[in-house]
Amino acid sequence: TPVEERSLLETGEFTLDSVRQSLTGQEDTIVYRLIERAKFPLNSRLYDQKYELVPGSPVTLIQFLFKQTEIVQAKAGRYLNPEETPFFPENLPPSVIQDRTYPVFLHPPASSVNVNNIIWDVYFNKFLPLLVKPGDDGNYAATSASDIELLQALSRRIHYGKFVAEVKYREAPHEYEPLIRAKDRNALMNLLTFKKQEEMVMRRVEKKGMVFGQYVSLNDTESTGKYKIDPSLVSQLYEKWVMPLTKDVEVEYLLKRLDGEQKQVP
Ligand SMILES: C=C(O[C@@H]1C=C(C(=O)O)C=C[C@H]1O)C(=O)O
């Protein structure tokens, strides 16, 4: 199996390289799911409580369906996996199946970082209107299923920042520790940022938007030059939100990285 497709929790080989390979594999999932969501129009009634699509409840239909989905998936053990972060963590039921155990790689006090409320807000208020055409086809069940899968893929990618941060910390603890103790967010952000890597990611996801978003025809000479989603929108999504939020997760994780750890004797 290509390394991009294996879970690092399976192999236990966490290095900056292997973590980046996992992020690369996750790009494929994100681009496929963008293409799937773009098949439906906005369907804004799903996201607007005033239509009261869930009778007698103060929540939007998407909130209702998302929470119910997480409840079912929690029973299957989804959130025992440290790569997964719930959007509605309150009162999730325990897993009903005998689950495998996961190796502990993350620093436990820092592993609970959760920015899903920000991902939710950015997705519905800023990004979705750019991705889809306006309108309402009433296809709420399929549209919400598509939103849920896409949001879960984005959340998994962004929260992978925890694994990235742990790897970077272990590679250079003496560089990180003073900044963590000083709670210096800006200096931490600078230390963990690799501009060249970010530019590569942006170019690659745009290319994936082109390759995965082609219209396939049996007639070789026929090329419409059109794509199922705008490839530059994919790199915009990464530049404006996915990478900055991944780095926020890295910073938040690092700020908690020394919690519960004994102070070193100088
Ligand atoms: C995830 C990393 O940390 C930062 C975030 C990146 C991203 O979100 O793709 C890329 C480079 C770094 O600035 C990394 O170094 O790979």
From TrEMBL:
Q: Which chemical reaction does it catalyze?
A: chorismate = prephenate
Keywords from UniProt, A to Z, are: Amino-acid biosynthesis, Aromatic amino acid biosynthesis, Cytoplasm, Isomerase, Signal
Q: In which pathway does it act?
A: Metabolic intermediate biosynthesis; prephenate biosynthesis; prephenate from chorismate: step 1/1
**Kind of enzyme, top EC level?**
isomerase
Gene3D superfamilies found in the cross-reference section: Chorismate mutase, AroQ class superfamily, eukaryotic
Q: Where in the cell?
A: Cytoplasm
Where does this protein chiefly localize? cytoplasm
Q: Which GO terms describe its biological process?
A: amino acid biosynthetic process; aromatic amino acid family biosynthetic process; chorismate metabolic process
One Gene Ontology term of the molecular function aspect: chorismate mutase activity
The catalytic activity of this protein is classed by the Enzyme Commission as 5.4.99.5
* Any GO CC annotation of this UniProt entry: cytoplasm
Provide the Chorismate mutase domain boundaries: 142-250
Look up the domain of life of the source.
Eukaryota
Q: Which InterPro entries match?
A: Chorismate_II_sf, Chorismate_mutase_AroQ_euk, CM_AroQ_sf_eucaryotic, CM_II_prokaryot
Record PANTHER family: CHORISMATE MUTASE
- Protein name per the record: Chorismate mutase
